[in-house]
Amino acid sequence: MRIKKIKLKNYRNYNDIELNFNDNLNIIIGDNAQGKTNLLESIYVLAVTKSFLSISDKNLIKFNNKFAIIKGFLECKNNNISLDILFNESRKIVKINGKEIKKLSDYISVMNVVIFNADSIRIFKESPNLRRKYFNIQISQINRSYLKILNDYNIVLRQRNEFLKIMNINKDSDISYLEVLNNKYADLSVQIWKYRKKYIDDINNYLDDMFYSITNINGLKLNYVSNITANGNDDIKNLLLEKIKNNFSKELQYKMTLIGPNRDDFYFSLNNKNLSLFGSQGQIRSSVLALKLAEVKLFTNIVEDSPILLLDDIFSELDINKRNNILKYLNKNVQTIITTTDIENINENIRKKANVYKIKDGKLFPGK
Known about the structure:
This protein is an alpha/beta fold. Helix content is 43%, strand content 23%. It has a 6-stranded antiparallel β-sheet, covered by helices on one side. The protein has a 6-stranded mixed β-sheet with strand order 8-12-13-3-14-15, sandwiched between helices.
């Protein structure tokens, strides 16, 4: 998979730009606050319809404008595709080959991206909610049905939480309605658990090798923590329903659902040491980078087409050995787009094969 060209209009600090990409390596140079990360963000948004920097879509619209447009042209395994996203003050419209797509689940997974930036490290140091959101996006990129199940789950979760609030006030509420909700909730929860478990199991097939290639250390694992569990041929749904039943009085007290995928978490361990608790900044950074490289492998094997790799100003924080170990993965099979404040951070032989651009004040210039 390659992005051949992107067009931006009224996006962040860009008025109207068009950029062509090399099939292999593209390097974007610029000082801080000139628009490098905004450009990478636009490619990410084109793929998953959400920013990794902002919660509100309105923040993507250039100041004093009423809309923003991202248009991308992809070369995929079997065909060429154009993607469009229009943001205005009230909604966003997505299109594939000029045709508006009503359901985001029919849009997401057309274009696959893997991004590494400073925010990627924060995800694994802060709240579990950030990690759940991260893996929801990654799984959705390669499993379109997962996003639909997740949307259905969130609807039932909201309904169940609302009814728990009602029951907390009115103890005579219809318990049979809660049983219907519980049944739907358990069905969807088990499906999400299976998708997440498979994704983490698949990632672990590659993760330690990627970590070793960066650090020359073995023993990295990504762990999935869930209160949904199964042994052998256990009936997972009935086990979950039993847990929900046993936890009912506590949920009623707190007026919220305490059992299920909404409580899942993920963490790295290095030789059985939880890096979230005991790891250094460098270990977590290397672990997340190994995860990104493992995802490139996994996406390629599942989709049978490589994702687009986005690396946002990472080389300034890596020593020369780690930098060189990563650069060897920037091969012709994976299109990579790198931002950097200093071109000297990147090997000269690598630079010769790349498209290089400079960004200043939201304007693009040839970099070589």
